[in-house]
Amino acid sequence: IIDMRKEENILSKKILSVIKQNIENNHQTLIFINKRGYAPLVICKKCGFTKICKRCNTSLVIHNFKKKNEFLLCHHCNYKEDFLNICESCKSEGKLSFPGVGIEKIYELVNNEFPSSNTCILSSDKIKSYTKFKDLITKIVSNKINIIIGTQLISKGHNFPYLKTVIILNIDNLLNDCNFRSFEKTYQQITQVSGRAGRKNLIGEVFIQTLQPEHPVIKLCKEQDSKKFINWELKSRSKNSQPPFKSYISLILISKIENILIKSSKTISD
To answer: 38, 115, 238, 263: which has the fewest Cβ within 10 Å?
Structure first.
């Protein structure tokens, strides 16, 4: 467990050291970050304007940053538009910033640190066909790739014989999600991704970068005791009247006229 409160950069010193050692020993490293795109937010440093989806009011994610085909994508409804580094609000040019971390930003950082290594992205955004996916998996299995950077696409169902190290980034986002199943999903995701390491004759190792190293879920992941986690989570669910002890229902109201929608919502809630 790597305490990121003591680190200044996105990738800790320990992680960079481990990756370097793996490259020298001809072992593979998997960096897991379940965030597509380059950054999950585009905001103007001058006026604070944020790029929002015109359909569903969700923050737009920038993809292919610093490349010819830069675009903004809504991960909720798939709305897409070309990216221009000009603020729509104050008309400032070159003032847009990109807080947060996506898989493309990690790829950029890794390439800057290890320019001579063979690095690949394994994500649904980049792998559009089964043929490309199969070709990339073949390269990984035959140890022609040094560093694999992947989203949830890489988390299960693959056997990489030369993969020694799994590095899990950005887990705090999932851990602190508003969904009541966030702890369950975090434990599940860490367990699945961790299982990729040490499949052949290698002793696998897993590193989790987190700002919450003392969090019970992180500690339970380290203990690798699923029954203990389940009992702990069930006690929490029971105390907070959550499923499976209570049932939830979701009501979705849709209308083209906002006033009618608000009125109907109030009627139901009353």
So the answer is: 115
The Cα-based distances of 154 to 103, 113, 118, 186, 251 in angstroms read 13, 23, 17, 15, 34
Assess whether pLDDT exceeds 90 at residue 15. Answer: yes
Q: Is residue 156 pLDDT above 80, yes or no?
A: no
Residue 175 pLDDT > 70, yes or no? yes
CA distance 40 to 60: 7
Residue 173 phi, psi (nearest 5):
-60, -45
Give CA 255 to chain center in angstroms: 33
Kindly report the pTM of this predicted structure: 0.87
Question: Of 188, 176, 182, whose CA–CA distance to 237 is shortest?
Answer: 182
In one letter, which amino acid is 50? T
CA distances (Å), 23 to each of 58, 99, 256, in order? 40, 30, 56
